[in-house]
Specification:
The chain is an alpha/beta fold and about 375 residues long. About 40% of the residues lie in helices and about 15% in strands. Strand 8, helix 7 and strand 9 form a beta-alpha-beta unit.
Length: about 375
Amino acid sequence: MKIGINLLSIRPGKIGGGESFIRNLLDGFLNINDLQVEYFLLIPKNHIKFWYKYNNKSRFHIVSCVLNNNNAITRIFYETIFLNRILKKNKITILFNPVYSKSVIGKPIIPCISVIHDLQALHYPGYFSKIKLIWLKYIWKQTIKISTKIVTTSNFVKNDILENFNIDESKIKVIYIPVIFKERYENFNKIAQKYKLKKQGYYYTVSSMAPHKNLITLLKVINKLKEKKIDLPQKLVISGVGCGSRYYKELLKIAEDFRISDNIIVTGFINDIERNTLYKNAAVFLFPSIFEGFGMPPIEALIKGVPVVTTKKTSIPEVTKNQAVYVDDPFNVDEWISKIKYAINSNRKIIKFEEYNIEKIANEYLNLFDIIYKKEK
C-alpha cells in the first residue's frame, strides 16, 4: 500500500497547530514498522529542507515538487494540473490530505482521505473577504464530495459539518490529533535569562493572534492584576504564529494603552524544546480561545503537569476530558482571576491522555487506509 501525503499547502512555521498535527502523525507512522506500507511525501521544492527527518527512510520517500507554495494561486494551479500525474507516476494507491485540499477542481484518480480541522470561516466570516469566504465554502463542499472519507479531529467538528453540509454521517470518521508525550527540555535558566522570567512566575499560552483566540481578555487580566496589585504572577508569555498581522499590532497597542507592555512577552513561533520548557515552568497555562476544532496546547500543558485554565467553548471540554479548570464566561476578567487563583493553589499533576498517543492515532489512520485500500481493490 502506497500512501501519498499531500504537503503541498504546508508552509513550515506558518500554520501552527496544523503543522504540529502533521509532524506528530508522521512520527507515529515512523515508529510503526509496517513494511507493507510506504509513504510518499509530496513537498514543494522550496520546503524540502524542513522535512529531511523523513528522507532516506526505507518506507518514506520525498517527492520533490517544482512548486513555490508561498503563492496560493500558483499552488492551486499546480495541484489542479499536476497532482494526478504525480500520483500516477509514483503508483500511489491512496491520497491523504492532512489539511483539506484547496484545489479540488478535478477529482483525484485514486481514493482520497481528507482532514477537515474546523469550519472557522462559517463562524467568523469577518476574518475573510467575501470572495475568499465563497471560495472556502466551495472548497469544503468539493472536498466532501470528492473524498472517499472525511476525517475530523473532534466530535464538535463532525457535528458542525453535519449541520452545515449535506453529507452522510457514515462518511465522517473522528480521529483525534496525536500528541507527543516524551519531551525534551532546555535548561530553564537559559530561557529565564532570555525572557527575564522566574520559574512559575509567569502565565503561558500558545496561540495564533486571531481574534477568536481571545488574547485581549488575558491582557485585561494582567492589567487588573497589576492595577490592583493582586498577589499573583503578572507576566504573560505568548508563543505562536501571526506576529506581524494586524491583530498582533492591535494586541501590542492595547498592551501599550494599558501600560503593561513590559508584562507581555511575545516569542513568535519557537522550536519545540524552548516551547516545552516554557510550558513546564509556567505557573498556569491559560487558553482563552472561544473556537477550536481540537485545541492541542491545553492538552500539551496538562501532560507536562501544568495547571490549565481555559474555556468551555466548542471542542475544548471534549478534548481536555474535563481535566482543566474552566471559566463559564470567557470574557469575564474577575472570573479568570478567581480561576487562576484556584489553579495555582491546586496540586500540580501530570495528566495521561493515552487516547492521543502518536502510535495509537497513527494506527487508527493505518486501519482506515487499509479498509479503503481493500474496498477499492
